[in-house]
Amino acid sequence: MAIVGEQLLQPEAGWQRIDNIDNNFKYIGLWKKDTSSGLYNNTGMFIQENATIEEVNSSYITFAFYGSKIRIFHTRYASHSSNMKCIIDDIEYENYNIHGETIRQYLAFDKINLEKKIHLVKIKSDDGVRFDFDCIDIDEDGYMIDLIETKLTKKSTLDSMKIGDIIPCRYTVPISGKVGYFSELGSCNCEGIDVDTSSDTPDGKFYFIKVDDNKFISDRNVQASISWNELNKNKLTCKMLSPTSLVFNGKSSYVSIPIEKIRTTKEITIKIRVYLEDWTVGAEHRFFSCTQLGGYACCYVPKDRYFRIEIATNHPNSPTLYFISGFNIDSSNNGWKTFYILYNGESVKIYDEITLKLNEKRNGTIIYGSTNHLVLGGEAGGGFSVESGTRLTGKISEFAIWDKAIEPETIENNLTGNEENLICLFKSTNAIGDTLYDLSPTKNNATIFNCIKEYDNSNKYHYTIPSGGIAYNDDITISFPKKALKSNEDYNYIIKESGVLNAKYFGYLAFNKTTVNEDDCWHSPMDNNPYITISSKKEKIISSGFRLTNRNCPSSIMPPATCIVYGSNDNEEFEKIHETSSFPTTNRATSYHYFDSQVEYLHYKFSFIGVGTSVAIGELELFKEYEYKNTSSSLINKNQGGWPIENDWDKYIRNSDLKGKIIVGDNDIWNYRNMISLCKEKVITGLKDINNENLDTPSGNVLIPVRGKIEAIDDLSAKRFNICLSSSVAKNIGFRPMLITEVGEQHG
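The structure assignment produced for this chain is given below.
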C-alpha cells in the first residue's frame, strides 16, 4: 500500500486516477498549464513563478467528488510550498509539505474512511509559497461532480424546478462558427463544456439555472468563436432543437457509413432503434446492410412478422456465404422498437429490447469481401449497389456498433460515446446538414441522402440569449474632483506630484476634466516610482474606485503599468487600499478600478510604475456609487452594468441571489470572469467602447452589447459591459443560451 511521501505512477487496486485536465477542477488565481515529462499524462497546472505572496494566497483549486477516499498528487520541488492545506467539507486537515528534491507524481496527501458521499475539496498554500497540481486518486467507483451541483438542486424536468434549481442539458456543435443543437435536457450525464475556455465545437454538458417563472439561463458560455450575426440568423428565438429521428421514405433515402474504421471480424454487437408506423404492412423494410459482398444485413418482412439477420462468415460447413436466421416479432404494438444483434464467433443472439428472441450456434469470423460502406436503409450484400432494391420506409433514431458481444442489459440506454468497445454511435440528434456525426471515438461520420429530419415541436419552450442593456449605466458620481482644477492648490485641495518632466506638466492637469492635447496631462520625470497625492483641506473624500484616462498623444502615450493606491488621515501613515495592473495602453483609453469597499480619507496617494521610463496621466478621478441607484443611460462606460437595469444580465446574473440560494453575482455559479457573452439587443447610437472611442460599423454590422470579461477593467464583478461588432468572432467571446418557456410555471 502506497504511503504519503512516495512517488506513485499508477493508481492502486480499488482506486482510479483523475487528471488535472478534468473540467470539474476549478482553478482560481494565476494558474498556467505544464507539459513537463513525468507528470501524469504529461500534464499539470502551476502558479506562475513571478506571483506575489498575495497572488499565491488568493490562488487555489476546488472541486467535488463522490467517494470515500482521496489522494492528492503534486510535484515535490525546491521552490514549492512546505505548508500546504487541504480542506474537505470545511474541515481543515493537517498541513503537508511539497518542498524538496524534485519528485513527479508525488503522493503528498491522502484521506481514507470518509463517508461515501459527495465531498467538496479545496487545496491551497498556507505560507504564500507557490505550488503545482498534478492529479488525484479516488474510489474506483467514485466520480467527479460539477461544483454547481454542490450548491444548487438538480432536477430532471422543467416543471419540477423552483427558482435557483438547475437542469443539465447537452449542446453539440459539429461545425465551428455555426449554431449547434441542444439535446438530453434533464438527462445529460456526459463530460461538461469547459467553463473558462468553452470550445469552437463543443459537445458536452452545461446547466440551465431557473431565474424566473419562465426563464432559465445557462451557467456558462457553451460555444466560442461564433458571431452575433450567425446567432441572429435564427432570430435569437429559434427552437434550435435536435432532430428526434431520420425519416426514410423508400428507395431514394439512405445513410452511407464508411466501414473501414468499424470492420470487426471476431465479435460484434449492433443496436438499432427503428420506427414503423404499422409493423403489419409493407413488402420489406431494409434496416441496414453492407453495399458489396460480405458483412451483414438486417431487414423486416411485415407479412411474415419476420425479423431477419444475415452475417457473412467463414464457417467451413456453410453451403452459402451467409448465415441467415431470424424470428417473429410481436407486431401488435406499432411505433418504436429497439433491437440488439450479438455475434461472438460461436453463436448469434438477437434481442427485442432486452428479451432474447434468437440464440443459434454459428462458428467463424465475419468476412467483408469488397464491402466499403454500411448503409442504413440500403440493400444487402451480394454485389448490389445502394441504388437498387428495397429500402426502409420508417424512422431511425439510433444506430451503434461495438467490437465485442455485449448483453443489452449492460448497455446504457443513454449512450454518450465513451463506452468501452464502442466503435460507432449515430444518433439523430447529431444530424446536421447532410452529415450524421459519429459520437464514438472513431469519429467515422456518415453522409445523409434524402432523409427528412423530424423534430419534436411539442416542446413549449425556445432558446435565445440574455439581454444585457442597450447603453451604459450612469450609476456613479465623481467624488474628486467635483470641479475642474486650475492649479495645484485652491481653498479645498492640494495636489502634490513626485516631479514633472518639465514646467508645463503639473499635477493638476490630471484633474482638469479635459485631455485636449499631448500637453493636457501630468507627466512625471524619468523616475522608478512616480506618484501623485490628493489632500483635502476640509472633508474626507469618499471613494469606491478610480477612473484613469491615458494621455492624448498617440506617438507617446506613456501609460502606467501598475498603480498602488494608499489612504491616510494624517498625511504620515498611509494604508494600502488597492493595487492593479489592468491598464490599457492605447491613446485616451479609459480604465475603471474598484476598491473592495467604500473608504473615506483626507489624503490619497497614487504610486505608479510606468510601461516606459515615465508616466503620463490624462485624467484621474475618484468616484463613489450612487446611494439609491436611480439610473440613467450613458454613452461612456462607467462600469456600472447595462441600462436599462431591468435587463436579463443585471437582473439575474449580477443582482439576483436566486431566493437566497447563492451569493449575488457568484462567479462559481455564472462563470463570467474569463469569457465574454454576447447579448441580444442592439445598442443605442453613439455608444463608445471601453477605450471611449466610437467603433466603425462596416456594412452588414451593428453594435451589440457584451457582458463578462473586459480586459481594461480590473473589477471582476458581473457588472462589466462593453460593445463589439456583430460580426466579431473570438476565442473568448461566445454564446450563453437562455431558455424561455411559453407558459411560466409557478414553482417558486
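Interim note for the steering committee: The longest helix spans residues 648-654. Helices lie at 53-57, 228-232, 648-654, 667-670.
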